[in-house]
Amino acid sequence: MKPIKAGLLGVGTVGAGTFHVLQRNQEEIRRRAGRGIEVAMVAARDLERARRVIGLKGGGEDVEVVGDPFAVVNNPDIDIVVELIGGYELARELVLQAIANGKHVVTANKALLALHGNEIFEAAQAKGVMVAFEAAVAGGVPIIKALREGLSANRIESVAGIINGTTNFILSEMRDKGLDFGTVLKQAQELGYAEADPTFDIEGVDAAHKLTIMAAIAFGIPMQFASSHIEGISQLQAVDIRYAEQLGYRIKLLGITRRTVVDGAEGIELRVHPTLIPSARLIANVEGAMNAVLVKADAVGTTLYYGKGAGAEPTASAVIADLVDVTRLATVDPYQRVPHLAFQPAELADLPILPMEEIRTAYYLRVYVQDQLGVMADLTRILAEAGISIDAVLQKEPGEKARTDIVIITHQTREKFVNAAIAKIEALSTVVGKVVRIRLESLG
Residue 163 phi/psi, 5° resolution? Predict the structure, then answer.
């Protein structure tokens, strides 16, 4: 059987890795896929660099290199378009044009899918082609396949993940070395873990893109990125990481999505924020730039998926796995393929994304106070009036100006009750500045 022909849009880190892994392992890939997979055409801004990249390992002599990506998606000889340029609008246009031309698509673009996935999947369904996106979440960790296929017998209850390696590296360094956020961010940029503009990573947007995709597959709902709650780590202080450690917790930037019933109605939590996790949990011990996703389901119980979430070859591994899947299923009746979001398109649920005010979780509260008689009594009274019970308290010795930190760990309660209590606490004359609030998940 003649090889299937792929067109590569973008020859950056992942594009170059994809080309080289395909070349290096082409015989093994052919044996798995049932036919060869060849990159026949490449689109890149820098044509000379692209030619150097595809010539590094040999075998690139027959690859056509062009500057116009639409030349790839409109080429009738290309069977699969591999979109690795990133971004929103141009990528959307290219992917939709490829689909309109009857081509299958493989993409690593989580932002594209989180914002435009509903439109893209609808178009692909109508045209009878596949859109594969394993590389869009957690790099080389096969979490999309696990959620979409491996756990298809289960009713998935929750997904919680460390899905941004940059922020996990920063938090690991802050904990290990006691450094502040700004210092570690600069180190991360120098080491290449963080971009020159790290906003998407450190403010949680990248993680929210990935979480949106996982939630859609886990619960059979449309992509709803605009409804996700997003908080990053840029305001996190080293002192809170230290106090959390003393109380038996570690702080990670988690993406959390779960089924929840509020006042008798089912909804979906979709939130990204710094989170305290008991230090005994496996996921709490995921360090450096690694990713990990914890899935809780009714039949299999709890499973953990761990590995490199970025990098040329780990991400290329996921891209090529998608290429193999598409090659295997290219001639299969479209109705016999695995649906893009695991559930049949007509069976997607119209479950609402819950507002943060209705979320139930536990909390870490740090209050900076004047060391005066009755301060603790005021804090406990306000929390009790809000129906919030206390699990643990850490009170430090008074320091400068006879002020001290009081750290309170609460039991589970609704966010709106904590919001009301914080407003009353900050109004006390003995409280200095704002209350620091970090959510806590036991993940037991």
Answer: -125, 20
- Which residues does 194 contact at the CB level (< 8 Å), separation at least 6? 166, 169, 170, 185, 188, 201, 202
Domains and their CATH numbers in the chain? 4-132 (3.40.50.720), 143-308 (3.30.360.10), 359-440 (3.30.70.260)
Nearest to residue 269, comparing CAs of 251, 283, 255, 284? 255
Spatial neighbors of 226 by CB under 8 A, at least 6 apart, are: none
What tokens appear for 152 in the block? 């298809």
pTM greater than the 0.90 cutoff: yes
- Model pLDDT for residues 301-310, shown as the tens digit of each residue: 999 999 999 8
Q: Record the tokens describing residue 200, joined without a space.
A: 């998407």
Q: Are 173 and 179 in contact (CB under 8 A)?
A: yes
Give ∠ CA 61-62-65 in degrees, rounded to 5: 90
Burial 88-100 (b: 16+ CB within 10 A, else e): eeebbebbbbbbe
The pair of three-digit structure tokens given for residue 410, joined into one six-digit string: 């609460």
Of 103, 110, 145, 210, which is the active-site residue?
A: 210
pLDDT 10s digits, 149-197:
999 999 999 999 999 999 999 999 999 999 999 999 999 999 888 899 9
By the 10 Å C-beta count (0-12 exposed, 13-18 middle, 19+ buried), 26 is classed as: middle
Distance CA 425, CA 33 (A): 62
Give the type of residue at 113: L
Structure tokens at 309: 């979430």
Q: How far apart are CA 181 and CA 40, in angstroms?
A: 45
Question: Across all residues in the chain, what is the average pLDDT?
Answer: 94
Burial of 184 (0-12, 13-18, 19+ CB in 10 A): buried
Lookup: tokens for 94: 């290219």
Q: In the predicted model, what is the mean pLDDT of residues 405-428?
A: 98
5 counts as catalytic = no
Q: Are 270 and 214 in contact (CB under 8 A)?
A: no
